[in-house]
């Protein structure tokens, strides 16, 4: 099983290089169900892996001038505030039992995994559907207001369940600001790197880390993103989104079934 987990690290980077996100959608389930980490630790490890991998991936785009720094910081600063809010204020104060009455037991770990699964379902529908919403005018003054509020939302999600939020960031940049897909992917990776690394550092002392394992897994993910970026130069990542979307949908359904219906059997 561990071999599958390490091979998955390469796939995580590959997906991030191709579509500018999606790494955490794979990494959290892998850390929980393949390596056996609890949900809190898994989200922290995911933040580190996704943060470092996206930072390395965005470095090449920075050299090419593809990262829109104004947009990155307009979106990224509210995101960082959202991450810190989740990791420092929300997560530490969540009770062990979210619900423990009426014959229903919902633990903190189950709640986070189910929340993550719901996010996966939303992400999968966004990736599977072929139609795109109409773009708002680039000079629309409300664009940046919406962008800042969505940045805050992505930050809260990132901090809470360890998801970089690339599937939310890329559409926001394309549809709200009219940024082309390649620049949106590049800017998304930069924003994800800021959010994820700061999210990891904010709670690094709260969970135990096996640095040998974490750095090995991250190194494989970095190899994957170089492969993904290489493929992306010759292939449109949007063509692969539906395939990845169906995979994410299946994984989200699996988590829901596992946590709600099969929990007592494992």
Automatic annotation (TrEMBL):
Its main localization is membrane
Name the domain of life.
Answer: Bacteria
Q: How does it sit in the membrane?
A: Multi-pass membrane protein
| Keyword Transmembrane helix annotated | yes
Keywords noted in UniProt: Cell membrane, Membrane, Transmembrane, Transmembrane helix
Q: Which family does it belong to?
A: Belongs to the 4-toluene sulfonate uptake permease (TSUP) (TC 2.A.102) family.
Q: What protein does this entry describe? A: Probable membrane transporter protein
Q: What is the lineage of its organism?
A: Bacteria, Pseudomonadati, Bacteroidota, Flavobacteriia, Flavobacteriales
